[in-house]
Design brief:
Blueprint lengths: L1 E5 L8 H14 L6 E7 L1 H12 L7 E4 L15 E8 H10 L4 H16 L7 H18 L2
Parallel strand pairs: 1-2, 2-4
Antiparallel strand pairs: 3-4
Length: 145
Amino acid sequence: MSIRDISKTDIEIDTNKLKKYAKDLLVEFGKSKEILNILLVNNEYIKELNFKFRKINRATDILSFSPADQKKNLKEGDEVELGDIAISLEIAKLQSKIFKHTLEEEVFLLLTHGILHLLGYDHAKKNDEEKMNSLQKELRKKYYK
């Protein structure tokens, strides 16, 4: 697993704790051997990603990217990428104030959300959204310390 801070901001977060939390979540879902890349970015960078991949020209809190076709061509023993998650630390900081919790907690919530998307969870329909929100709360209670 790799965490790269390319935020170019003065916002700091404990990446060791973030990495441990991500590993705990991957173990929970039987994905401990898969590779997850976490990018901690600024608004400018996430806006570029959002436009490049979704044609939406604005910053967002989190983006997740799954290498869907990769799994078709795997041989036994090959490393598998679960995907990439980009989190805007600037938006996370703003949201942490709005929701009245710490920046760390907001980043962990966003990371959980992104990992669930990479695992196939979605919130396009109301019942799927409720299921995903419930699972996020359960995982937060179990692993966030």
